[in-house]
Amino acid sequence: MSKQIDERDIPDIIRKPLITEKATIALENNQYTFEVSPKATKPQIRGAIEKLFDVKVVNISTQNPPRKKRRVGQFIGHRAAYKRAVVTLAPEDTITLFPDV
After folding, report:
1. pLDDT the model gives residue 101
2. Are 51 and 10 in contact (CB under 8 A)?
3. Span 13-40, mean pLDDT?
4. What is the pTM of this model?
5. Dist CA 12 CA 68 (whole Å)
6. What whole-number distance in Å separates Cα of residue 57 and Cα of residue 7?
7. 3-state secondary structure 52-90
8. 99 domain-assigned
9. Cα–Cα dist 10/86, whole Å
10. Does residue 2 register a pLDDT over 60?
């Protein structure tokens, strides 16, 4: 029951893949980590991933990490808010994060 996603909305939902040590270890379990829009819902994320990479999504876990304070001189601000989505794919599907050039 994935919601139909317009292809023009995919860049607004899925920002970029996150490549960290923990995310690289999770690749062994067919789990991929993406930075997504903070307002994106799980059905929107599922539809965007399935349409963008032509794979079957089994499970999605999302986290909203707290915003970190940043200071520039006397001004205190925050880093931009983001949402992290860990997407588990079906065993037969994979996503190529580093294509051979």
Report:
1. 67
2. yes
3. 95
4. 0.84
5. 22
6. 17
7. HHCCCEEEEEEECCCCCEEEECCEEEECCCCEEEEEEEC
8. no
9. 17
10. no
What is the domain extent for residue 47? 7-89
Number of domains in the chain: 1
pLDDT at residue 70 tops 80: yes
The answer to the question of residue 70 being in a domain is yes
* Token pair listed for 34: 């993406």
Amino acid at 80: A
Whether 97 maps to a domain, the answer reads no
Distance CA 61, CA 96 (A): 20
CATH number at residue 53: 3.30.70.330
Q: Could you tell me if residue 30 is inside a domain?
A: yes
Give the amino acid at 93: D
Compute the average pLDDT of residues 38-62: 95
